[in-house]
Please model this.
Amino acid sequence: QVQVVESGGGLVQPGESLRLSCAASGNIASIYAMDWYRQAPGNERELVAFLTASGTTKTRDSVKGRFTISRDNAKQTSYLQMNSLKPEDTAVYYCNARGVDPSGPSFSVWGQGTEVTVSS
Model:
C-alpha cells in the first residue's frame, strides 16, 4: 500500500509565494515520477509539472518561470515552489506518484489534494 499526502496550500495574495510538498510512503521500491496537477472549479484536472527520476522536468506554459518542481529522492518527497501567484492559479493541487513496489507491480497513486487560493 502506497500513500501520497500533499501539504502547503493556503490563501495568499497575488504576487505571493507558496511551496507545496508531496510525500510518498508505504511499500515502495522506487519512484520514477512525481507529478503535480491542479483542478480549478468547473475545469478538468490539468498537468502543472512533472519530474522524472532521471531529472527530466516540464512545466505547463502558463506557469513557466514562476513554478519550479523539485524532488528529494531520499525523502520520497516532491516540491512545487510557486512564485508570483496569480488568481488564475487558484485550484486544488494534486500529486501523483508512480513507481514500483517491492514485489514488482507498478503503482500510480494520487494524494487527496491541497487547496490554493490566490485572492486580494
